[in-house]
Amino acid sequence: MHPFAYTRVSDTREALKAGSAGGRYLAGGTTLVDLMRETVERPGTLVDISGLPLRDILVTKEGGLRIGALVRMSEAAAHPAVRAAYPVVSRALELSASAQLRNMATIGGNIMQRTRCTYFRDVTADCNKREPGSGCAALHGVNRSHAILGTSGHCVATHPSDVAVAFAALEARVRLLGPDGERVVPFADFLLRPGSTPQREQAVRKGELITTIEIPALPRPLESGYLKVRDRQSYEFALTSAAVALHIRGGVIREAKVAAGGVGTVPWKLPAVERHLIGERPSDALWAAAAEKATEGARPLRHNRFKVALLKRTVERQLRIVGGTK
């Protein structure tokens, strides 16, 4: 680990000042500190924001949710309002990391975490995320865990967050506070596909601070859930995952929100699947036909071709779990 300065702030004004001067924000530290140990990240200054008042979970008058950026993952998963309104969020959090990490890690930090690609974390390997222009060792290396959607010739790493998949499905928004004031970014625009600049992973400007993640109100009744397929039952990242929310009224699907994880360079929204569901009646045949559209645009690599079929099965299974059959 390289030497660094440390400062602790008590209000957002201090935080923005320190962040604008080049400091890196530190909350739970469960990702950043690991990367510093491995010398992947070398910040000159850490700005401890854990004392800021960004820990509320509020139900909006419209019926949506606002989750403070410093709410711990375990707190959000267990919160009655989250569990009642959006079980998909609770379940995604419960299937993340370990209990100890969930007690430390924050919601804001979770969506800001960097890839678990082994080449990114190996400072001797070529990685355009870590060192732009050096190449991507995963393209022709061992790429079983890598992405099949949203990739480029510069990067094929997956985004590791589970709850980000739920946020993508629910079309959440990220509220940011920076030197130029406050702004709101749709979740679909917050995490960036690699393109030719894989080192730029989030739409966060210099000095900006995540304050809140907002989930909009959706029609009721709403059934939702999260399914994660992985090599082992605990403390493992997804090979594939599916976040599904369905509004079924009068026996017809009126609203469908679907996203996949473990397969994209960002949490992957599945609009073709959603469109296939709207206006239809739940059935096994419908779930299977809709899931076939989950892999449109997929570009599998040498070792992860199995993810194409696995993603379809994951989406189909979760649609059946959430929507039932008739």
Automatic annotation (TrEMBL):
Gene3D superfamilies (UniProt xref): 3.30.465.10, CO dehydrogenase flavoprotein, C-terminal domain, Uridine Diphospho-n-acetylenolpyruvylglucosamine Reductase, domain 2
- Which InterPro entries does the record cross-reference, listed alphabetically? CO_DH_flav_C, CO_DH_flav_C_dom_sf, Diverse_Substr_Oxidored, FAD-bd_PCMH, FAD-bd_PCMH-like_sf, FAD-bd_PCMH_sub1, FAD-bd_PCMH_sub2, Mopterin_DH_FAD-bd
Q: Which Pfam families match?
A: CO_deh_flav_C, FAD_binding_5
The reply to whether DNA repair figures as a keyword in the UniProt entry is no
Keywords assigned by UniProt, alphabetized: Oxidoreductase
Keyword Oxidoreductase attributed: yes
Q: Which PROSITE patterns match?
A: FAD_PCMH (PS51387)
Residues annotated as domain FAD-binding PCMH-type: 1-220
What the entry lists under SUPFAM superfamilies is as follows: CO dehydrogenase flavoprotein C-terminal domain-like (SSF55447), FAD-binding/transporter-associated domain-like (SSF56176)
The protein's name is Xanthine dehydrogenase family protein subunit M
Supply the source organism for this entry.
Streptomyces coeruleofuscus
